[in-house]
Amino acid sequence: MGTRSINDYTRADAIEYIEKNVDSIVVADGDKDTYRALVRKGFFNDFIKETGSYHDFMEKLWFHFNNSDEKIIDKYHVFLPKVGEFVSKYSKRIKVVFENITHIIQMTIYPIEGENQYMFYLDEIDDKEYIEEDMTTDKVKSIQNTYLFSMYVDLVNDTTNSVSITEIDDETMNTQIKYSEWREQIVEMISPEYQKLFRKRTAPEYLKKNLAPGSTSSFDCLMMNLEGKYIWVKLIFSRAETDNDDDYHFVFMVQNIHESTMELKSTIKKYEEMALRDPLTSVFNRGRIENEVINAIKKKKMDEIDISMMILDIDFFKCVNDEFGHSVGDITLIHFTETLTKVVEKYNAVIGRWGGEEFVVVCYGADTAKVAAIAEKIRGRIAEEDFLRVGHITCSIGTTTLRSNDELSIAFDRMDRAVYEAKSSGRNCVRSVNYL
Questions:
Q1: Which class is domain 277-432?
Q2: pTM to 2 decimals?
Q3: Is the pLDDT of residue 176 over 80?
């Protein structure tokens, strides 16, 4: 049997061939938000219902994560009505996941002239045919995927095009949206504390005034991702370099910098903590505990809550250094602060090394009686603790309760007087001074 000549084929043959070989044909009406499947074969029998909402149909094709059936949050659905509008023939490949299986679909859309109606032709492509292209673009995707969103902006005509959301699709989206509309929609995805900055830096007047041709501007902020979680992003505007100074074309990109930003913040926090800690005992150093006292005094004036302080002085610590050496003295100081920390950890308390063998503790929610009780627990615990090589040591503790009219020097004078009285009373005791 020979093959037919191409001259033997008719238009009817072409229509019959399309109906026989195309996996799915769908006609849709955007104005009435409805669609009807004329042809459904293979997995399309289950993936697409015979009739339904055009909005839901477009969401099923586009608004899920790339290579996943997981839906994106509703806030990003603002783009959906624009995605469903087609002004001319449109063709692209899309990936959908149905029942944990990825399907690659070649989609061609024909607008019905003069109406917001469309004819969809959908064909599933063998993934073996697609795999070579997929592997070729892997390295490109790894770079592109750091950019969550990008688009081209014409400020003069208030238009956008070439909109790309990489987590949804590797290619640009078919969307017609004004730049002014986009700003009002996307601001809802910006964390509230950055919305004012976003409005300022994305305003057409700001961009025209501050970005010369060929220049780039960016700022970091928290932005909601497609899963509904705030992540750190870099918003980038780059003005196209042309010979016309009145040509205001920009490329806008959203870069995912969350991982690097969190790592940087963690590093900064680490070094910040190191700068505030006493290198030997790891409790706060003098500068940090002094700042804590200042803040406690301010809090007392503002909130009128009970806040007390104490200063601890290890008794005869010079003898420890003289008899056992400074290395044993250092070990003793470390052991002392570890014991002190264990006693106060169940209270809302902050510990700092004031200098040498003196330590300051700020106790929130503690009145005169409570701070005296806490101090007595500390004194007793220290006295019964067995310190390596040194044996038993004691400490003298002076306490005071903050007043609303206190200043730093006045509060410390009372603590100094209290610890002086403790030492004068034979040491290894607690004394309180609340008035001078």
A1: alpha beta
A2: 0.53
A3: no
